[in-house]
Design brief:
CATH class of the largest domain in chain B: Alpha Beta
CATH architecture of the largest domain in chain B: 3-Layer(aba) Sandwich
Helix content of chain B: 40-55%
Largest sheet of chain B: 7 strands, mixed
CATH superfamily of the largest domain in chain B: Periplasmic binding protein-like II
Structural class of chain B: alpha/beta
Radius of gyration of chain B: 22 Å
CATH topology of the domain at 87-143 and 205-337 in chain A: MetI-like fold
Number of strands of chain A: 2
Strand order of the largest sheet of chain A: 1-2
CATH class of the domain at 87-143 and 205-337 in chain A: Mainly Alpha
Strand content of chain B: 5-15%
Number of helices of chain A: 14
Oligomer: heterodimer
Number of domains of chain B: 2
Radius of gyration of chain A: 26 Å
Shape of chain B: globular
Shape of chain A: globular
Number of strands of chain B: 13
Distance between the termini of chain B: 36 Å
Structural class of chain A: mainly alpha
Chain lengths: ~350, ~425
């Protein structure tokens, strides 16, 4: 709070300094900001700050605090006992295989989303920006997965697409007979592995579903950004003899810098907090994700281990923070260089 | 970026809020007096009739499938006290279970739930209402049902409605067509399985989606090989999961696995049942609720108990989980809640439910069983002739251990039976972390 009032004061000082003719100080009296202005400013800054504190920082700090307790989620708050680092110790010894497989899956997802769906979403946006006939219809179709409810998404991928005996994919492949069915969402054996860990085959299958949602999301974001790029830039590059790729790579993409950063951050966050589709499929083995570990311990029927669940949450928080700070720092550094 | 972290805790707040919303949610439906009263309900016994309570009562229900939901509505419609408006808030079965911990912090007055450890666990946390006085008026329950409804403090917390046995299901017409005989010993069962393999029929259906159906196979093998008491101790956290006894169970499970449908982890039990219906597979070990998939051909569904493996124990135990109703610790309308619970504990109420949903058998001995289907009669007979009734792996043990450890362990075993030793080492270590 003190930081902010200081800033506020400095703001007022600057404003005051440009207008005051009195050299003896007492700047406040000559501030252009009336009492009403100031209270409006306080409200404008204060309300979002309060909301931010209540809904982001307090829960985040509470999560960190709870990760050092043995709370079962049911007993009165007064009975919560501190257990030090025991939850973390358990997570990295007894439950290590869970957290490592989840970490590997989340990490793989970051790379996959960048290389696959994010790139494809950008491509779609670029194409749709060319005012194709029926562009709006394509746009709606690609965006549809983002707005579908969890239950519908679960049903689509579980029963319609990936059912071994009745699903679309098995039917198209002609593998619905009794001996030849493919257990798309249940086969947790590793497609490629390293030691005891690896990427499960069913995780690869669910990546398709995740891509299906992510493409539409990125497309809409990028499309909005593209609309704001000055068309004369593209005309100029066309006159200069750029081909389509050069125009995108050298002119449009750099002009989209702010959107690029947002898309990058969103992709990382989506990958790290990936949750809904796997949850809708009742979290099969092989699709372990950090967010699933958190919910399993916090709220699942096996809930009642708020301490360990919060521990997983803190690990996820640190990963997110680390990733985002690294990413933004990199971007800012590049910006300075160019 | 911090929204993610906020969401971690936010989740619980949101879910708790859902409890509030239930009263106004679109799934909320008043069924009091809107459906014709079935059968003999209205002339209730056991303290249910002629109540003095008034007002609104909410009932949180996980009977979200169409058939059980209709059955619940029919049963509630038979509640004789028409001055109480019973509002049923139906929540998807899986969601209900997933959110139970949060839901119980702001629950409805009366709640559908399960007997056994899963009940005692919440009773011990003080989030359930003591209904011992309701039990004082209930006359139709055996000691076994009472014990399963009782918390560690010797008070009752659940009114049982029905239970259903786990057994090996098959289609008589299919057995007849192929000339198979119902096996009564393990050797006969294995012989039958071999026979089916040569006939190009997969002997056992198995769908382990949701990570619980394989628990039934583990349970029955465990009780057949090591006996009921071993099951109880193991579930209570007292047994050693790396012991020879447990390894013998998984060895037997491993021997049976090649006779099961491959790739079970992604298959729902409904799909597995469909495979048996179409003759792709011959048998299926599941609770009798499998009959939901045979609604159009109930006559062509039968079962036999899993045969004996160890002579010492024979077939003296089965899983036959009990479903029933519990009361919130601080219900908004306690008088009406207890009146409704007293009614739900009558034979009439159970029959009103089971007439619509004949997959299970009434818990109350006072239920009029003359309307039972052949399958129900057989279920009732199996349950009453079996000495030890277990609830089910995920109802007999710590819920966290069941859903976060055993579900995963069994899925891992089905995917790679050869790694059972390291799986069990993990289970034992995690058990100690959870039960400590």
């Amino acid at each position: 709070m003190s930081d902010r009032s200081e800033l506020q004061e400095r703001g007022a000082t600057t404003v005051g300094a440009t207008t005051t003719f009195d050299r003896r100080g007492e700047r406040r009296r000559f501030s252009q900001l009336t009492r009403g202005d100031k209270s409006v400013l306080w409200l404008i800054v204060g309300i979002p700050t309060l909301i931010h504190l209540v809904f982001v920082w307090i829960p985040a700090i509470a999560t960190v605090v709870l990760s050092f307790t043995d709370w079962d989620g049911l007993s009165p708050v007064s009975q919560i006992g501190l257990v030090g680092f025991q939850n973390y110790w358990e997570i990295f010894t007894v439950f290590r295989s869970d957290v490592v497989s989840a970490g590997i899956n989340n990490g793989f997802l970051v790379v996959f989303l960048f290389v696959g769906p994010t790139a494809f979403g950008v491509l779609l946006a670029y194409l749709l920006d060319k005012n194709l006939r029926g562009g709006r219809i394509y746009q709606s179709i690609y965006y549809l997965p983002v707005v579908l409810s969890l239950a519908v998404v679960g049903f689509i991928w579980k029963s319609v697409m990936y059912s071994p005996s009745q699903g679309v994919i098995s039917t198209v492949l002609g593998r619905t007979g009794s001996g030849e069915q493919i257990d798309w969402l249940g086969d947790q054996t590793h497609a490629f592995g390293f030691g005891d860990y690896g990427i499960s085959k069913n995780f690869l299958a669910i990546l398709v579903a995740m891509a299906w949602r992510h493409v539409g999301y990125i497309m809409v974001l990028y499309l909005a950004g593209l609309k704001s790029v000055d068309p004369s830039l593209r005309e100029a590059s066309a006159i200069d003899g750029c081909n389509e790729w050069q125009a995108f790579r050298r002119v449009v993409f750099p002009a989209m810098k702010p959107i690029n950063v947002v898309v990058g951050v969103i992709t990382v966050i989506e990958a790290l907090r990936a949750f809904d589709i796997v949850f809708a499929l009742k979290s099969p083995r092989g699709m372990d994700l950090l967010s699933i570990l958190v919910t399993d311990n916090l709220i699942g029927e096996g809930g009642g281990n708020v301490g360990r669940g919060s521990g997983y949450g803190v690990i996820l928080l640190l990963l997110c923070l680390g990733f985002i700070i690294w990413y933004l720092a990199n971007n800012i550094r590049q910006e300075r260089r160019s | 970026m911090l929204a993610g972290a906020g969401a971690l805790l936010g989740v619980s707040a949101v879910l708790a809020a859902c409890g509030d919303d239930d009263d106004t949610s679109p799934t909320s439906a008043s069924v009091g007096g809107t459906t014709p009263t079935p059968g003999t309900a209205g002339t209730t016994t056991g303290g249910g009739g002629g109540g003095t309570a008034t007002g609104t009562l909410t009932l949180g229900s996980n009977y979200s499938d169409a058939v059980p939901a209709a059955a619940l509505a029919a049963m509630i419609a038979g509640f004789p006290n028409k001055n109480v408006d019973v509002k049923v808030n139906t929540v998807d079965h899986n969601t209900f279970q997933e959110n139970i911990t949060n839901y119980l912090q702001q629950p409805d007055d009366v709640i559908t739930w399960f007997a056994g450890y899963r009940l005692q666990y919440f009773a011990a946390q003080g989030v359930l209402g003591d209904i011992s006085d309701v039990w004082g008026g209930l006359t139709g329950f055996s000691e076994g049902f009472k014990a399963a409804s009782t918390g560690e403090d010797n008070k009752q917390y659940l009114v049982p409605l029905y239970n259903y046995p786990w057994a090996v299901h098959y289609r008589p017409s299919f057995f007849e067509e192929k000339g198979y005989a119902v096996p009564s010993t393990l050797d006969e069962l294995m012989g039958l399985a071999d026979q089916m393999m040569t006939d190009d029929v997969t002997p056992f259906s198995l769908g382990n989606d949701g990570k619980w159906p394989a628990m039934g196979t583990f349970d029955i093998l465990n009780m057949r090989i090591n006996g009921y008491q071993f099951h109880v101790d193991l579930m209570a956290g007292d047994g050693d999961w790396t012991s020879d006894e447990v390894k013998a169970v998984f060895a037997a499970f491993g021997d049976l696995l090649p006779f099961h449908q491959s790739g079970p982890n992604g298959r729902t039990w409904q799909e597995a049942a469909t495979a048996m219906k179409s003759g792709e597979t011959g048998m299926m070990l599941l609770g009798t609720f499998v009959s939901e998939q045979f609604a159009d051909s109930l006559d062509d569904l039968d079962f036999f108990p899993f045969p004996a493996i160890n002579d010492e124990y024979g077939t003296d135990s089965i899983d036959a989980p009990i479903d029933g109703f519990m009361m919130a610790a601080a219900p908004k309308n306690e008088e009406a809640a207890k009146e409704l619970l007293a009614y739900l504990g009558t034979g009439e109420a159970a029959i009103a439910f089971l007439t619509e949903n004949p997959g299970s058998v009434a818990a109350s001995t006072e239920a009029d069983t003359s309307g039972y289907t052949a399958l129900q009669e057989k279920s009732a007979e199996l349950i009453s002739s079996t000495a030890n009734i277990a609830q089910f792996l995920d109802r007999d043990t710590n819920p966290e251990f069941a859903s976060n450890v055993m579900g995963d362990a069994l899925a891992d075993f089905l995917a790679d039976p050869g790694s059972i030793d390291s799986i069990l080492d993990d289970v034992e270590a995690r058990k100690q972390a959870i039960f400590e």
